[in-house]
Design brief:
The chain is mostly helical. It is built from 19 helices and no strands. The C terminus is likely disordered. Bound molecules: protoporphyrin IX containing FE (HEM). Heme-dependent dioxygenase that catalyzes the oxidative cleavage of the L-tryptophan (L-Trp) pyrrole ring and converts L-tryptophan to N-formyl-L-kynurenine. Catalyzes the oxidative cleavage of the indole moiety.
């Protein structure tokens, strides 16, 4: 099979299958003349060539290209999610694209060790030429953060003024302003979670049932603890149960939830959190299987970006130590280390869902109506689905 980008015949000669003289060849299609002539080594220009500067440039360029692809996928996913109703065929496409982002991020995390083959001494040989250039000025990195849902108030102090590095670059500023004002992936995911079937207070009313289940479960635990003969063990268990009640209060009392949101310790709206918990509990039901996959991919994205930050910080310490300023003017290693906290986790609440889980036997059972709703496809009852055997979770059959 010949490469689709090369208009070559099987004998190797170049022909023009479109019948036009303007047929494109591989390099032309990919504009390789531009990409492959973009490795300007400052050490060469300064007549002191440093071999590893080439790797430094290529690595950054490769990152920027992949950032571009991530943004491309992210924009399309935001478009697909930006609707009151999301057909399940769209959910499949959303999953496919989020999974692609996850795979790219894995690649980006794994790319760090390649640059680490450069020694700090080699880096020192050309570092001075770079100043004041720094990854801190990567527009695409900031756009990616914003489009995912990183908010200015959650950034560490030094980073809250990240726009100033773009000075009077009107295009950059416009792109940043749009990325900050458009609904982020996190905003759209929350809207979608708020519509989780089963949350309706005049319907299945999951939240009320969940609260009752938690209370029954903790009461039962308390009764069992009271049978403990050893006083110290009994007191320990009772104290533990009381702590659990406090933890649950943080989700059942909306005012506690709002206080945590104000402190930046929780990000999701109250209703979105309920949707996420419900999907987690009933993820084995066909209709919640894809939503649950989606939530998992969102956590993967957050955790891979955190892993990239960590690998980058380690590389920075190895290259310039922890006492030197960055070429971008920050405190360098110290600044980067501060970005490793939960502040930058957009889907922090999903990671913390495990705090609120209860054992399977205590999960509120679904009633017939709800089971019917969650079984298979929108608008197709489980009875009918079982009857004609077309039960799939993607709604395509
Ligand atoms: C020898 C390798 C590297 C060193 C020593 C280094 C050093 C630094 C330092 C010190 C900072 C803090 C800002 C400042 O400059 O004051 C920074 C930020 C940053 N660097 Fe690197 N870097 C390296 C490689 C890379 C690579 C390959 C990328 C890929 C794109 C990258 C992307 C970034 C980004 C996005 C930031 C901003 C992070 C944030 O503000 O959260 N860096 N880097």
């Amino acid at each position: 099979m010949s490469c689709p980008m090369r208009n070559g015949d099987s004998d190797g000669s170049i022909s023009d299958p479109l019948g036009t003289d303007a047929g494109m060849v591989y390099g032309e299609y990919l504009m390789l003349d531009k990409i492959l002539s973009a490795q300007r080594m400052l050490s060469v220009q300064n007549n002191k060539p440093v071999h590893d500067e080439h790797l430094f440039i290529i690595t950054h360029q490769a990152y920027e290209l992949w950032f571009r692809q991530i943004i491309f996928e992210l924009d399309s996913v935001r478009d697909l999610l930006n609707s009151e109703t999301i057909e399940e065929s769209k959910t499949l496409e959303i999953l496919k694209r989020l999974n692609r982002i996850v795979l790219i991020l894995k690649l980006l995390v794994d790319q760090v060790p390649i640059l680490e083959t450069m020694t700090p001494l080699d880096f020192m040989d050309f570092r001075n030429y770079l100043s004041p250039a720094s990854g801190f000025q990567s527009l695409q990195f900031r756009l990616m953060e914003n489009k995912l849902g990183v908010k200015t108030e959650h950034r560490v102090k030094y980073n809250q003024r990240y726009t100033h590095v773009f000075g009077t670059d009107a295009d950059a500023i416009e792109a940043i302003v749009s990325s900050e004002s458009e609904p982020s992936l996190s905003d759209l995911v929350q809207k979608w979670l708020e519509r989780t079937p089963g949350l309706e207070s005049d319907g299945f009313n999951f939240w009320e049932k969940f609260q009752k289940s938690v209370n029954d479960f903790l009461d039962e635990q308390e009764r069992m603890a009271m049978h403990e003969k050893m006083e110290a063990a009994r007191n320990y268990r009772l104290m533990d149960i009381e702590k659990r009640r406090d933890v649950y209060r943080s989700i059942f009392d909306p005012s506690v939830h709002e206080a945590l949101v104000r402190r930046g310790e929780r990000r999701f709206t109250y209703k979105a959190l309920q949707g996420a918990i419900m999907i987690t509990f009933y993820r084995d039901e066909p209709r919640f299987s894809q939503p649950h996959q989606l939530l998992t991919l969102l956590m993967d994205i957050d955790s891979l970006i955190t892993k990239w930050r960590y690998n980058h910080v380690m590389m920075v310490q190895r290259m310039i130590g922890s006492q030197q300023l960055g070429t971008g003017g920050s405190s360098g290693y110290q600044y980067l280390r501060s970005t490793l906290s939960d502040r930058y986790k957009v889907f922090l609440d999903l990671f913390n869902l495990s705090t609120f889980l209860i054992p399977r036997h205590a999960i509120p059972p679904l009633n017939d109506n709800m089971r019917d709703k969650l079984n298979v496809i929108y608008g197709l009852s489980s009875e009918k689905a079982n009857h004609d055997g077309s039960a799939t979770s993607n709604g395509k059959n």
